[in-house]
Amino acid sequence: FVKLGYIFVLVSLPMALGTTYAIHNTDTPHWGFILGTILDYQQGRSLFTEVYVQYGLGLNYLISLLSYFNPVSYTNIGILVSLVYTGTLLLIYVSVKHLSSFWISLIISLITLLLHPYAIYPWPDYFAGFLLALTVFILIKKPRFNIIFHFMSGVLMFSAVMFRNTYAINIIAAGLLFLLCSYFDRRIFHTGIYFSYLVFFLFWGSYISMLYFQGDLSLWYSQVFGAASKSYGVEASGVYTLLYKILNPGMVETLIFSLLFIFCLMSVLLCALIRLPNDKNSEILSQTTVIVIFLSILGMTGFVQCTMIYEVFRLQNACLPLFVASAFWIQ
Questions:
Q1: 91, 129, 127: which is closest to 302 by C-alpha?
Q2: Model-level pTM?
Q3: Which of 167, 172, 182 is nearest to 317 (CA)?
Q4: What is the pLDDT of residues 190-232, one digit of tens each?
Q5: CA nearest to 257, candidates 202, 299, 203
Q6: Are 170 and 318 contacting, i.e. CB atoms less than 8 angstroms apart?
Q7: Are 104 and 66 spatial neighbours (Cβ–Cβ below 8 Å)?
Q8: How far apart are the C-alpha atoms of 171 and 248, rounded to whole Å?
Q9: For the packed helices 74-99 and 33-42, what is the interaxial angle rounded to 10 degrees?
Q10: Phi–psi pair at 47, nearest 5 degrees
Q11: Which of 84-98, 155-169, 258-272 has the lowest mean pLDDT?
Q12: d(CA 93, CA 95)
């Protein structure tokens, strides 16, 4: 009864609060911007040249597809975003439970729920976070190489980037760091992860090529990456800006998130430093351990999403692999 009751709360609370919020608290800068770009796209205007694409094409494509079944409105978009965020919370709970005990999964999912109880904007971060959570679940559920499931994880990572193009930074960075770890410790090797990245880069390369041949590559960069380059810490002051945002978040929930992130990060690093050397005598690590190492790296690199705007909902979606992986290390 405790498990069923908690799952009911985990599903019903963010769904009810998010739907209520979408009905009574819409605004022009956030909700109007998203709805406006979708309507412009549906009216046949060209993406990038006539429609400003700040985050990615995923939301425009998805809402336009769903409009054949349901009219586009603030409320309908709000219900959809709430449903997606509820799914993310549920996937976090299920993924942690697969790695650890019910009580640890309860604690981690409850903290994420309390930090951000419901979706507040129709932002692509929620959709990208859901797809990332689904990737995490597949990798944990199928730790051994499976061509179908690891193909799906590669497609899901690409799909997350399509909703929020800046996710390409942390996903690609995580892949490079994992490759670096594999170089220094040959036991950190996983065919499924490499295959997932092969699929990811095939789709990502095809997308970039399409933009190039359509003549939209420079517009895409300026609207998605170029416009945010200063905020993303390209210049030398970026490190100072990032540290300032971490140490002086300005709100209670962002301060708690910073402490939670630091706690999970230190737990992963310390436990990994203690456990991995003890396994030196073993020629290979378990497939689950290697998957968790990758997820830890993926969650750490997700913190780059805060260098533009330090908001909990952005970070919670981008860093969720770290929170899931921390359950494995601290158990």
A1: 129
A2: 0.89
A3: 167
A4: 899 999 999 999 999 999 999 999 988 888 888 887 655 544 4
A5: 299
A6: yes
A7: no
A8: 26
A9: 110
A10: -70, 145
A11: 258-272
A12: 6
Contact 198, 154 (CB under 8 A): yes
- Say which amino acid occupies 294: F
Q: Are 312 and 320 in contact (CB under 8 A)?
A: no
At residue 291, the pLDDT reads 92
Using the Cα atoms of residue 135, residue 136, residue 142 and residue 147 in order, give the sign of their dihedral: positive
Q: Which residues pair with 47 in a beta bridge?
A: 51
From CA 149, how far away is CA 131, in angstroms rounded?
A: 14
Q: 143 — phi, psi (to 5°)?
A: -65, -30
Task: Yes or no: say if 72 and 65 are a contact pair by the CB < 8 Å rule.
Answer: no
Tokens of residue 33, six digits = 């911007």
Place of tokens 């995923």: 58
**N-term to C-term CA, the chain:** 24
